[in-house]
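Hi, here's the filled form for the chain we discussed.

Project: internal
Contact: R.S.
Residues: 221
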Amino acid sequence: MWQLHQFALCPFSRKVRFQCAEKGVAVELVVELPWERRDGFMELNPTGQTPVLRDGALVLADSGAIGEYLEETVDRSPLLGSGAAERAETRRMVAWFEGKFYAEVVVPLLGERMFKRVFERTAPDAKVIRAAARAAEAHLDYLDFILDHRRWLSGPAFGLADIAAAAQVSVADYLGGIDWDGHDAARQWYSAIKSRPTFRPLLGERMEGLPPPGHYDKLDW
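And the returned structure, exactly as it came back:
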């Protein structure tokens, strides 16, 4: 069985877990805190980043590379799209959320609301959190715009773009960084994501010492 080295609030690990669940690939979860730079983990992935997917001697690192491998080797539930244009749009939306959204929203929230609180035991910087909230608002506006024109993020069918976006958004939501008021299209999309049996296990996980907001795992909020 595949082993997935990950931790609860790593959005890239969430993406791989969600994709594996959609494709029916069973994985054994191994909790890995990358900032500890454990020797055994550094041997698997010298970058020291999660996720890492391992099956015996085969070691896959980087969620993008893992995702491409799964799409090439598992026929069930193809997630990239039905044509070249749709696949290009899928990759564009994945890049948006894993680059821009992650840098502007998730990284500052992880630093201020997870790392400082749980590991450094210091107070978060309110200015950084407010900046992340403003960025999240802009991204939700863009989500609303996209979803006013199509059912899912890259076209008519659920796919990898939705998986990548939901992974990032769910971590930001766990950390209290998302204000859903006034974003009906984005809320409806995320509610549909939250109702998927393949995503529900992610919502049930908690990081010790850091509970999520009350609405976090509710389907109707």
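Let me know if anything looks off before we file it.
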